[in-house]
Design goal:
The chain is mainly beta. It has helices at residues 12-23, 90-99; strands at 2-9, 31-38, 44-53, 60-65, 80-87, 103-106, 115-119, 125-130. The chain has two helices and eight strands, in the order E-H-E-E-E-E-H-E-E-E. Strands 2-3-4-1-5-8-7-6 form an eight-stranded mixed β-sheet.
Length: 158
């Protein structure tokens, strides 16, 4: 299930105003994320960016500031970056997507991984998101709370 559409922007505040005004979108609090990540070849890098998710659904908009030299850059000629979707097993998704010509581009693929990125022939990313990892403030987008979804979420959230 697709749960978010992400755009990579130069200026987060400006993009929030533009998207928010045009689409009448409200935003969750802005997060400043600094953390270690890795390219598909295992090379580690620090990701330091600000990001925000919309508070309105059923599909979230994600905006994040680009980080040159990392996967957090847009494809040439667009600010569109990726589609995020839920999966039970990121390692199984890696195998399934490989059969579809989508190759792992970064992020761990073990059972505890929050998410991993895959790129395909279209020049964009898919972000396979682990349904078993809690994303505080985004609970409404999990499969058990999204309209039309029937499978239960195994997360125990307050």
């Amino acid at each position: 299930m697709i749960w978010h559409v992400a755009f990579c922007v130069d200026d987060l505040d400006e993009a929030m105003d533009q998207f928010g005004n045009a689409l009448q979108v409200n935003w969750n609090p802005v997060k400043h994320y600094v953390g270690e990540n890795m390219h598909a070849d295992g090379t580690r890098f620090t990701l330091d960016t600000r990001l925000v998710f919309s508070a309105d659904g059923p599909v979230a908009l994600e905006l994040f500031e680009k980080v040159p030299g990392t996967p957090n850059e847009p494809a040439d000629g667009t600010i569109f970056h990726h589609l995020g979707y839920w999966t039970d097993t990121i390692s199984a998704e890696q195998e399934r997507l490989r059969e579809c010509s989508w190759l792992h581009q970064g992020g761990p693929t073990d059972a505890e991984s929050r998410a991993a990125f895959f790129a395909g022939p279209l020049g964009i990313f898919f972000e396979a998101c682990n349904v078993d990892v809690n994303r505080n403030g985004l609970e409404k987008y999990y499969p058990d709370t999204a309209p039309g979804m029937k499978q239960p979420n195994r997360l125990l959230r307050p």
